[in-house]
């Protein structure tokens, strides 16, 4: 049996979009992701790894819904160790997505919340966007001699800070905590307009992911996302 391509996401909604035929989807947060990915590979092997999902924008002017195809993934928790995406995969996706950025991604261990912190990370790394899974995917891929690619959609632009309610609404497993959002709004109702903008941005990112998933499936071959693990 041909080993699958393993697609890695950090959020359940990302994993739902990634599901399809032909590969294994591993959905986990960064504290368990490496172990979950290793377990999936031990079960059925892998032909390659794909980091798929959303990312926070770091370049001013990049709007929600913008695809970023990583040239390199910068492992910021490891003093910016660099991992180069599989050139054939990354180039094929870039050609199929004329509006996508071919740029570096910063891998981080915690959300980059404020506009000031995003600007600081951009100055430090030069990366177009940041996420919490791609650097772990890259580490595991290198350890096993596998190709990998990171294809991420910007969900929050560099110029905006996330309101506290947006973070209060995230459980440790990536699912949504509605009560947490409501409690945060009760403490500070003035953050509601910013929270509504977050919802609009998330909707744009989801639309882009659904469209882009079909392109990823076509260009990487043999389908995209059959079995969901950890969802």
Strand sequence of the main sheet, in spatial order?
3-7-6-4-8
Distance between the termini: 24 Å
Specify the biggest β-sheet. 5 strands, mixed, barrel
Radius of gyration: 17 Å
Report on the architecture of this protein.
Pfam families: PNP_UDP_1. Its EC number is 3.2.2.9. This is 5'-methylthioadenosine/S-adenosylhomocysteine nucleosidase. Residues 36-159 form the Nucleoside phosphorylase domain. GO terms for molecular function: adenosylhomocysteine nucleosidase activity; methylthioadenosine nucleosidase activity. The protein has 231 residues and is α/β, with parallel strands linked by helices. It has a single domain, classed as Nucleoside phosphorylase domain (Rossmann fold, 3-Layer(aba) Sandwich), CATH 3.40.50. Helix content is 41%, strand content 24%. It has helices at residues 12-18, 33-44, 87-96, 115-125, 134-144, 164-168, 178-187, 192-220, and strands at residues 5-9, 23-27, 48-57, 67-75, 81-84, 101-107, 129-131, 148-156, 227-229. A five-stranded mixed barrel has the order 3-7-6-4-8, surrounded by five helices. Helix 3 crosses helix 8. The model is unreliable at 225-231 (pLDDT under 50).
């Amino acid at each position: 049996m041909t080993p699958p391509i393993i697609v890695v996401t950090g959020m359940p909604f990302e994993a739902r979009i990634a599901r399809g035929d032909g590969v294994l989807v591993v959905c986990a947060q960064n504290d368990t992701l490496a172990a979950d990915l290793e377990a999936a590979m031990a079960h059925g092997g892998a032909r390659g790894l794909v980091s798929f999902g959303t990312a926070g924008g770091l370049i001013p002017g990049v709007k929600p819904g913008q695809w970023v195809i990583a040239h390199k993934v910068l492992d910021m928790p490891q003093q910016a160790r660099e991992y180069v995406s599989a050139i054939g995969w990354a180039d094929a996706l870039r050609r199929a997505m004329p509006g996508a950025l071919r740029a570096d991604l910063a891998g981080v261990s915690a959300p980059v919340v404020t506009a000031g912190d995003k600007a600081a990370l951009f100055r430090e790394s030069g990366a177009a966007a940041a996420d919490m899974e791609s650097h772990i995917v890259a580490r595991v891929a290198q350890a096993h001699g596998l190709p990998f690619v990171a294809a991420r959609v910007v969900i929050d632009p560099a110029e905006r800070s996330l309101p506290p309610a947006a973070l209060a609404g995230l459980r440790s497993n990536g699912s949504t905590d509605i009560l947490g959002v409501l409690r945060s709004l009760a403490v500070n109702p003035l953050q509601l307009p910013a929270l509504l903008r977050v919802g609009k941005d998330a909707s744009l990112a989801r639309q882009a992911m659904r469209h882009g998933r079909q392109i990823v499936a076509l260009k990487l071959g043999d389908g995209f996302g059959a079995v969901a693990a950890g969802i």
